[in-house]
Amino acid sequence: MKKDIIKIQSFRINFANTYCYSLPVVLLISCTLLFSNAYGFILAGANSNLILQIPTSSSNFTSGQMVMDHSQMDHMNMNMNMNMNQTEMLKRGDIAMKFNQSKISHQFVITPNGGQIKISALDNNDNQTVSQIKDHIRNIQKEFSEGNFNRSSFIHATTVPGTEVMTDKRNLIDYSIIEMNNGSSLILESNDTEVIDAISQFMEFQAIEHRGH
Length: 213
Hints:
64% helix; globular; four-stranded antiparallel β-sheet; 6 helices
């Protein structure tokens, strides 16, 4: 009986010792596994980020930033091209209109029955430019009424929208002039729906191209 009691006590002591020594080991292994999983997740995330952040040049921009920069560059290139195109157009305008485009303001207005081309000198005291504007308006009044839009085609280096209909139906358009102290306006009027639409196309195109010049 005593031997049995001793064996039981010895088993309890050994089990307690084993449990005491084993518990830290188990906890250590568990913590290690947890840490490994967490570290692996972080590494996976880091690797994912690295894939997204591989630089395409010596800069430190991320790919997301590079995409944004490319978009900005495209926008800048488009603006540069537009400015270059307008610069060339204004040079041709100097030749065709016979006055300095930097000294005047162009307005193209769509009206219910046609449109209006208004040109004014930026300096009201610039008599030479004002006189040249008035001459130009009289010239295009005559040309447009004859279905001649060659001057506009030269300035814009293309066939201006609406001019084909305006040429074919030139007899259905009334061209009148309103004199101003610093310039002149050409009024285009018609009762024909197709012509009115053509004049609207003509005015819209000119307004976009000139952008105030």
